[in-house]
Amino acid sequence: SLSDEVIAETCGAQYCPDQLISDDTAPELDKMNTTDNFGVSEEKLYTLAGVYLACSVGAAIILAVLLDPLTRFGENERRKEQKEENLSGLSLLLATMKHMKNRDQLLIIPLTIWSGVEQGFFSADFTAGFVTCAYGVHIVGRVIICYGV
User: Fold this and answer.
1) pTM of the prediction?
2) Is the distance from CB of 23 to CB of 141 less than 8 angstroms?
3) Distances in whole angstroms, Cα of residue 36 to Cα of each of 1, 133, 134, 145
C-alpha cells in the first residue's frame, strides 16, 4: 500500500491519472503495480451485475403490478382529444418554445445544466481523485451509496 506522503502528493486536489503511471517523483509507485487497485475477481463482477439486474427486474415487476392504470386518471379522454388534434413534431416543438417565454421555465434551464455537470464531476473525477486513489476501488461503491443518501 502507499504511504501517507505519497497519497498526499498524488491524490485529492493533486490527482492526475497520467501522474500515477509516469511520475518519477514517487518511487513507491514505481515499485507498486498500479493495476492492483482494480484487481476485482470476475466472480464479484458477475455477482454485482446479477444483483443489479435482479433489482431492475424486480422494480419493473413491482411497477407493473402495483401501478394504477392511467385510464383511472382520464387518459382515455386525453388520447381521444389528441387523435382529433393530431399533433405533429413541429407543433410539439412550437409548444415547447411557448413554455420558454415563461420566466420560471427559463430559470430552470441553467439549473438543469448545472445539475448534470455536477453529477458528472462527482461520479467521475471526484470519485477517482479522492476515493479510488486514496482508499482503493473497493470503497467506491460505499461512497456512491452515500451520494444517493
Assistant:
1) 0.40
2) no
3) 10, 12, 13, 23
